[in-house]
From TrEMBL:
<comment type="similarity">
    <text>Belongs to the LysR transcriptional regulatory family.</text>
</comment>
<protein>
    <submittedName>
        <fullName>LysR family transcriptional regulator</fullName>
    </submittedName>
</protein>
<dbReference type="Pfam" id="PF03466">
    <property type="entry name" value="LysR_substrate"/>
</dbReference>
<keyword id="KW-0238">DNA-binding</keyword>
<keyword id="KW-0804">Transcription</keyword>
<dbReference type="InterPro" id="IPR000847">
    <property type="entry name" value="LysR_HTH_N"/>
</dbReference>
<keyword id="KW-0805">Transcription regulation</keyword>
<dbReference type="InterPro" id="IPR036388">
    <property type="entry name" value="WH-like_DNA-bd_sf"/>
</dbReference>
<dbReference type="InterPro" id="IPR036390">
    <property type="entry name" value="WH_DNA-bd_sf"/>
</dbReference>
<dbReference type="Pfam" id="PF00126">
    <property type="entry name" value="HTH_1"/>
</dbReference>
<feature type="domain" description="HTH lysR-type">
    <location>
        <begin position="1"/>
        <end position="58"/>
    </location>
</feature>
<dbReference type="InterPro" id="IPR005119">
    <property type="entry name" value="LysR_subst-bd"/>
</dbReference>
<dbReference type="InterPro" id="IPR050176">
    <property type="entry name" value="LTTR"/>
</dbReference>
Length: 281
């Protein structure tokens, strides 16, 4: 399929009109119409219904809309892979969740630049749901994630076991009180947190670890955070472990497509395991 057909389809959906899509694409309206006719012929289904207000999707169009953006991304990814820079044998796209970008992803990228100098790198950070979809579709070769869902066609390797610990800026604090900030570490954490603190009703919650931690450091309070992210603050006296409070496991995984090129992904994964071991020390 010509990638321009999918791009034209997306523009019509975005603008709601063949005319506005042609203006945005800087082509004649007849060109837009011809592309859509070509696309509909290839798919064997009408995709749009035209009316005075513009154009709306048919049921087949609604289904194609689910796949068209990924098709475009995959094509762009293919172009990146084909365009291997001079002096490199391959291109590797790696990624992580936002909260794992520093230091783990950063240290891994540094390692690869030193140890895999024949590999060009593309580094990507995203939210978990988008990241796992990108790995599954081949847009990202290898990603660092917490609690990735198991899907056919994915290979998942345990990297390290993180611990979520309760820390506070008040060295005298012993309980979860009104200064407690709830950090949403996912469904499993929510279940165990509820079992251990059934009466807790925090009125401030976050879904991004670094942001929540910076808030606690700036304004005071307490919350559950990864030990690796709070260790330096504990050593500096800015945070304190709350004694006799439960700690929760929060493992980190490497995720790759089972169809990934092992000659490229294999050495990078080995390096990631090495970097992860150093993180534990």
């Amino acid at each position: 399929m010509d990638i321009e057909l999918a791009r034209t389809f997306i523009e019509i959906v975005s603008t709601g009109s063949f005319i506005r899509a042609s203006e945005r694409l800087n082509v004649a309206q007849t060109t837009v119409s011809a592309r859509i006719r070509n696309l509909e012929q290839q798919l064997g289904r009408p995709l749009f219904v035209r009316h005075k207000g513009g154009a709306s999707l048919t049921p087949a169009g609604e289904q194609f809309l689910r796949h068209a953006p990924m098709f475009i991304q995959l094509w762009q990814r293919t172009l990146h892979q084909v365009a291997v820079p001079p002096g490199r044998r391959a291109v590797l796209t790696v990624g992580s969740e936002v909260s794992l970008a520093q230091p783990l992803l950063l240290d891994w990228v540094r390692w690869m630049r030193l140890s895999l100098q024949d590999i060009a790198l593309r580094v990507h950070v995203d939210v978990p749901q988008d990241l796992i979809n990108q790995v599954a579709s081949g847009l990202v070769d290898l990603a660092i994630m917490y609690a990735p869902p198991h899907r056919p066609g994915l290979k998942i390797d345990l990297l390290l076991e993180e611990k979520l610990v309760l820390v506070t800026t008040n060295s005298d604090a012993r309980v979860v009180d009104e200064s407690y900030v709830y950090m949403d570490w996912g469904p499993d954490f929510g279940v165990h947190h509820g079992m251990n603190f059934p009466s807790a009703a925090p009125d401030l919650s976050f879904d991004l670890g670094p942001l929540a931690l910076n808030y606690v450091l700036a304004t005071g309070g307490s919350g559950y955070f990864r030990m690796s992210s709070v260790q330096s603050h504990i050593e500096a006296g800015r945070l304190h472990l709350v004694p006799e409070m439960p700690q929760f496991s929060y493992p980190v995984y490497a995720v790759q497509s089972a169809s990934a090129d092992e000659s490229v992904v294999g050495p990078a994964l080995a390096g990631l395991h090495s970097v992860a071991r150093d993180e534990r020390r």
